[in-house]
Structures are given as C-alpha cells and as structure tokens.
Write a structure and sequence with these properties.
Number of helices of chain B: 14
Number of strands of chain A: 19
Shape of chain B: globular
CATH class of the domain at 72-378 in chain A: Alpha Beta
Number of strands of chain B: 9
CATH superfamily of the domain at 72-378 in chain A: Metal-dependent hydrolases
Largest sheet of chain A: 8 strands, mixed
Helix content of chain B: 40-55%
Distance between the termini of chain A: 51 Å
Largest interface: A-B, 20 and 23 residues
Structural class of chain A: alpha/beta
Oligomer: heterodimer
Shape of chain A: globular
Radius of gyration of chain A: 22 Å
Number of helices of chain A: 14
Distance between the termini of chain B: 17 Å
CATH topology of the domain at 72-378 in chain A: TIM Barrel
C-alpha cells in the first residue's frame, strides 16, 4: 500500500542537507550575503537569501548561526610522507589536519620515497587517498625522473594516470635545456609545470635570508636574487615554449615584479606564496629558532608586505600552506643543520585571516587565493559556492579567538611556527562532497 | 687569599652562561677585565694554584679541533683548582649519528659544573645550554661568537693603552666568516672604541656598516691612524670558493707588512687571534715586531678565562 507523500516545498533526496542562517561568501561571484545553501547528491543544488530561514522539508538542517560559509580551501602545496616517510605524515593524518583546517582539497607533492615519477605510484596515492583520506587528494608527479633534473619523466603517461600537474619538488631544474623541453613537451598534454625557484649555486650554503639578521647571527645567507634569477629564467622559457608555468612559492617583491611583467606580456604564468611568508619575517628566527627555517627563507618585512600587496592586486594567484612535516629530531639541531619546513594545513586559514583582521587585505582576494584561483589553475570544479559545484564547504566562526597548541594538532608532526600564536577564526564544519568530515565522527583526537 | 677571590666576592656577575658578548654591559666587561688583571698576576707567580673552583668539574667539549683555546681553558680551570676533562668529539660521534642534544644530555648526566663548548655551527652552544643544568661557556660557535677571545683582546688593549674608549681599532681580513670579528665588534663598541672593518668586499658580511663599524676595502685607508691593527686568519678553503683569487693576491692587498703598517699610528699595536698564516695575512717581520702583542694575547687568554670561570662560579650550587 503506497503511503501518502508528505507535502513538501520540493522533493529532496534523502541525504539533502541545508545550511541556514549563513553568511555566504563566494570569491568568484563576489557574493557576500546572508542566506542558505542546499546540498543534494554531494553538489550545491541551490543557494541564496531565500534559503536563509526556509529549509526544504526532509532536508537535514545545519544552523550556521550567522557564521561564514565559504568554499573549501584548495591547498596547492602539501608534502606528506606517504609513501616512504609515514612516521612524519600519512595521507590519512594529513587529511585530518586538512579537514580540521578547512582544507577540502590537498595537492600532494611528488617528493616522497620513492618519488612519484611512475604511473603506478600516481595510482597508489590515488587509491590510498580514496581509502584513507577525509578530503579530496590529488598528486603532482615528478617533472624529471627521480626529481634529479636530468631527464624528463613520462609526462604523458603520468598525466593520463591522473597526475594533476608536474613538479620538480623542492628544487629548480638546474639545466635550462631540460626545463625548456619539459615545458614544451608538457604543453602538448595541456599539463601545468610547477616549479621551485632557487638558483642553487647562488643560494650556496645559505640557510636563511641574506641580510642584517644573517650577518648578526653569523649564518650563511641566501640572497633574494637567487630566487629572482631562477624565476626570470623560467619565465623566459615559458615565453619561448608557450608552456603553462606556475612558480610554486615566491618570497620577495623583486620576484613579483618579474611575474607582473610576464603577465603583462600575456604569458600563461601564475605564482603562489606560503601563508608563512605572508605573516612572518626573518626577525621571527630570533635566536636560531629552527621552526622558522623555511625554503625559500623568510625575508625582510618589506618583502612580506610586497607579497601581501601581491595577493591584493592579483600578481600572486595562490596562497599555500606548504605543509611540510618534520620530526623533532630534524628540527632540534643547530640552525644550519636543522631540517627546512613547517606544517601548515591546520593554520592556513586562521593565519591568512590574520591579514584580513589586521586590515592588511580585503576578505575576497584573500579567500580567492585559496579557493577559486587554485581551482582555475588546476582545472578543478571546486573552490566555488555556486549551483552545480561540488559541496566542498567550510563554516567558520570569524569572531572566535583561540591559541595554537602544537600538542593538539592533527598532523603527525609538530613543527609549526605558530605554536602559542593567538589567532581568530575557528572552523566549525568542513564538508567534502556534502559529507561532514569535521568535526570528526570518530574520537581519535590527534594522530 | 688572593686578590682574585676578594674581587670575585665583590663583583656581581648576573649571567649563568657566557654565550655572547651582546648581553654584556660596560661595567660587567670592566669587572671581568679587572678580575683578569689579578688573574694575570697569579699566572706569573711560582705557585699558581688557587681553590676558587676546588671540587668543581669542568668539561672541555670541542666539536672542532683547537689546541690553543682548549689548553687555555684547561690551564685556567686547573689554576683555579677544578678537575678538567677534555672531550674531542670531532667527527666520530657525529658520524655515529648522535645529535648535539643527545651529547649534551649524556654529559649533563655526568654532573659537570661547567661546560666549555666549541661547535662549527652558529647557535649550537646556545642550543646546548638550554638542555643542561650547568654553566656553559661558548668557546666559539660557527661564525657567530667567541666571547672570551673578545675579552682577552680587550684586556690586552687596556693593559697596553690604558683604556679602550676612544681608540681606533681596525679589524682586517675574513670578517664574513669570523666569530672573532663579530665578538670584537660588539664588545669594542660597548666599550666606546671606534671599530673599522677592512676586507675585500667578498669577505664582508651583508650591510657590514650597520653592525656599528666603518668599512674599508683597502688597507691603506682602513688602518690609517689606527691605534690597533687586528689581523684575522684567512682559511685555506676560502681560495677554493672564489672569495679571493690566491694567497699571493691576498697578501699583496691585505697582508700586513711593514709598508702598510706605516699608515697606522707609530705606536699602533699589532694583534692576531692565532694561529697565524705567516705570508698570507701577516708578514713575519710584523708578527715579530716589538709592537706585536700576539704572545701577550695568548697569556691574557688564560687570565681572562680564569676571570670568567670565577665570575660564573657565583652561580654554581652552594656558592
């Protein structure tokens, strides 16, 4: 006997969810208004002011209490330890860190052990991510075999296997001829080439920015010019080849001049910056604090301000965490001998929000650099709060203050430069394809 | 009892470690130099032994080989009655994979009272000091600091010139890689000297003038009318890394010979932290000139280290 259907506003699938009483912020359409958002079948089915208080009957209701609803963040530079260095980070532990930090898509770097330079390894990461990760995971593949910079990897096969872009990991391709052919060949597959930018002989033994601070500390410095030279060369090669090129993480104002000039010449080039280089500078190293040892190094305050201005005016496209887990054994060493890198998935959003809350930058360009901009560069459907987009969504309480506590983080490693930093902006909910992934369903706490 | 014990009783030294000259005030430096003057007298007596550090243990922990500094600390400690052991860590335990902190924790468990540490990496001694319970003296950390060298240089200058304030001190040579230079720049500025740096630009740190110095790239200008000419050692490996083209060229432009020395004041002191490369940064005739106080620097090294050990002893348990 058929039951009488209940009277509804509109029939909704059984897993439909509606976020009501939300402040909807979408950087692509510049939407910033009170409203609600309906999720059906893992996609955004509808959104707008008409859903602010009216939930379709049958849908699960989440009251956002006026908090921000933004597209989930896409982090274009995440180092994990899987495969090979799982004690530092697995895809699962990184994804928990990501979910708790509002990151719904991680782009993993190929600098694992072994290096991701073979189709089978691209497949491995994708399968492990599918089985263990809470958020979307894509992997970049190595641009050169073993990341050695000598021979091009199987770019076509790697892209075919699902690699989202090609990267040479932490190092520039030293040989300009190899870089030229890799950019040329990748162009035939429409593949994006992502690169670090450091001229290694010029950087020399440098372990921090070359300047007054390095002179006082007696540490060998790496001049910003080492970055500019490597970048300028790559931009010239991008022009020569017509290839798509993305400078993974720039750190100085001079480099942005080169990017702006290349964009003015209509080259297909983009660039990123880490949230560390937007919010910290070389003085934070203080008395040899190795958690601030990064590559490229933290620069002076003028460079930090230039990078923030670059986000505001669009010269810089992307903000990344450059999440790079390192064990305490690698960090508790004399500065010159300590490991580079900082974890950042959990602090990417609140650290970036500091810039907005300090009045250094508007909210829209700041969020665009972590959502729609990387989505466009990588050809991903997310990063948008629009009908038909995947329901990768973050709800943030922008008013809530908190203090970073490295012992309570979800990464397997603790090397955050923001330990005990006061921040504002707490992630209340993270959804991936309409499923609530944070707060965690299980009770594992930190990994 | 000697003057040393009495003075140590009156002179209050606030630091538990000696890691850098940057946190020393003028009066603290003067106090240490006064103590060292007395220590120098003790070292010239027949019976040199005192009991200021009786029952105490000092460990010399040298990750970088050094005959001179290590034996200077050893003598200083023994003259004050301490028991001393020397550990040359060199590369052996490093290659066995033991970290600096593991080494520190291991030695700390042996309950020394004072650790004297030299390490090839800037900041390493401070890092180690955070992991141990005893007093730590920095005997050189990479290109960063070597505070007892700056103190012994200051003592040598004061004994010969009667003052430090107002003197013009030209520090010449590989400033970039020199902890001796960084320590002397800080200490001499605190004491009111005028510090000049003289080197080819490849051997100067970034923005050297902002360290509180005048910077020169020729010896003739740099040591003109200087009261003190302080030469630094040029390491052999700098030639291979294109800091300077050759020993021959370096000596031609930056080696201190009698010709260049004529630009300094007639009674200028000639100093060198040692060990010297005769014919590279200093001509033999200058090294052995009557105005050279290089040997006196070595003697004052022991005295200054006795003074520092006495001052730090104020913070040892039961003191």
């Amino acid at each position: 006997m058929p039951s009488t259907p209940k009277k509804t506003l509109r029939a909704v699938p059984i897993d439909a969810t509606v976020l009501i009483n939300a402040r909807l912020v979408d950087p692509e359409t510049k939407r910033d208004e009170q409203g609600g958002l309906l999720i059906e079948n893992g996609m955004i089915a509808d959104l707008g002011p008409h859903l602010r208080r009216n939930a379709p009957e049958g849908a699960k209701v989440i009251d956002c209490r006026g908090h921000l609803v933004i597209p989930g963040l896409i982090d274009m530079q995440v180092f994990t330890g899987e495969p090979g260095l799982e004690h530092r980070e697995t895809l699962a532990s990184a994804s928990r860190a990501a979910a708790s930090g509002g990151v719904t898509t991680m782009i993993c770097m190929p600098t694992t052990d072994p290096v991701i330079d073979d189709m089978a390894l691209v497949d491995f990461v994708q399968r492990r991510a599918r089985d263990t990760a809470l958020v979307n995971v894509h992997t970049m593949a190595a641009l050169t075999k073993g990341l050695k910079g000598d021979e091009m990897s199987e770019i076509g096969l790697l892209v075919g296997a699902g690699a989202i872009a090609l990267s040479n990991g932490r190092r520039s391709v030293a040989n300009a001829g190899v870089m030229r052919r890799a950019l040329t060949y990748a162009r035939d597959f429409g593949a994006l080439v992502v690169s670090a930018t450091e001229d290694e002989p010029l950087a020399g033994a440098g372990v921090m920015n070359e300047g007054e601070v390095s002179a006082r500390l007696g540490l060998p410095g790496s001049p910003a010019t080492a970055e500019v030279i490597a970048l300028e060369r790559d931009l010239r090669l991008a022009e020569l080849t017509g290839g798509r090129y993305h400078a993974a993480q720039l750190s100085c104002g001079e480099a942005l001049g080169a990017i702006a000039a290349a964009k003015a010449r209509k080259l297909a080039v983009t660039c990123g910056v880490t949230v560390n280089h937007l919010t910290l500078n070389e003085n934070d190293i203080g008395s040899y604090r190795t958690y601030f040892k990064l590559r490229p190094p933290l620069r002076g305050e003028a460079d930090r301000k230039a990078m923030v201005a670059g986000i505001a005016d669009g010269t810089v496209d992307v903000i990344v965490s450059s999440h790079d887990p390192q064990g305490t054994d690698g960090k508790r060493r004399p500065f010159a001998e300590a490991a580079y890198g900082a974890i950042g998935l959990e602090t990417l959003l609140p650290a970036a929000l500091r810039l907005h809350l300090n009045g250094e930058i508007d909210l829209m360009p700041l969020l665009a650099a972590m959502t729609i901009n990387p989505a466009r560069i990588l050809g991903l459907p997310g990063g948008r709060l629009q009908k038909g987009a995947p329901a990768d969504i973050v709800v943030i309480d922008m008013e809530a203050p908190f203090m970073v506590d490295k012992t309570k983080m979800h990464s397997r490693s603790r090397n955050t430069p923001f330990d005990e930093a006061r921040m504002q902006g707490i992630v209340k909910y993270t959804m991936v394809a309409g499923k609530l992934v944070y707060p965690f369903k299980d009770d594992l706490g930190h990994a | 009892m000697t003057a040393l014990s009495k003075l140590a009783g009156n002179f209050s030294f606030p630091h538990r470690h000696l890691l850098t000259v940057e946190n020393l005030t003028g009066p603290q430096i003067t106090g240490l130099l006064d103590l060292a003057d007395d220590a120098a007298k003790i070292s010239r007596e027949v019976r040199k032994k005192r009991d200021r550090l009786a029952g105490r243990t000092l460990i010399n922990l040298f990750f970088e080989a050094s005959t001179r500094t290590q034996s200077s600390f050893e003598l200083a400690a023994k003259r004050l009655g301490a028991d001393v052991i020397n550990l040359a860590v060199s590369q052996s335990s490093v290659s066995k994979g033991e970290t600096l902190i593991d080494t520190a924790v291991t030695l700390n468990a042996m309950r020394p009272d004072i650790l004297v540490v030299r390490h090839h990496s800037a900041g390493a001694v401070e890092l180690l000091s955070q992991k141990v319970d005893c007093s730590v003296i920095n005997a050189g950390d990479g290109s960063h600091q070597h505070p007892t060298q700056a103190l012994l240089d200051a003592l040598t200058i004061r004994r010969n010139k009667g003052r430090i304030a107002g003197l013009t001190v030209a520090i010449c040579g590989d400033i970039l890689h020199s902890r001796v230079a960084r320590s002397n720049i800080g200490l001499l500025n605190t004491m009111g000297a005028r510090v000049r740096l003289v080197a080819p630009s490849t051997l100067l740190p970034f923005a050297a003038e902002r360290l509180g110095c005048e910077v020169f790239t020729t010896m003739q200008e740099g040591i003109a009318d200087a009261d003190i000419v302080m030469m630094l050692r040029l390491q052999e490996e700098r030639m291979n890394a294109s800091y300077v083209p050759s020993k021959r060229e370096y000596f031609h432009f930056f080696g201190l010979d009698q010709e260049k020395l004529r630009y300094a004041k007639p009674d200028a002191l000639i100093m060198h932290p040692g060990p010297m490369n005769r014919g590279v940064e200093i001509h033999s005739s200058v090294a052995d000139d009557p105005r050279s106080v290089i040997r006196e620097q070595v003697e004052m090294g022991v005295a200054v280290r006795m003074a520092v050990l006495s001052a730090l002893a104020q913070h040892l348990p039961n003191e």
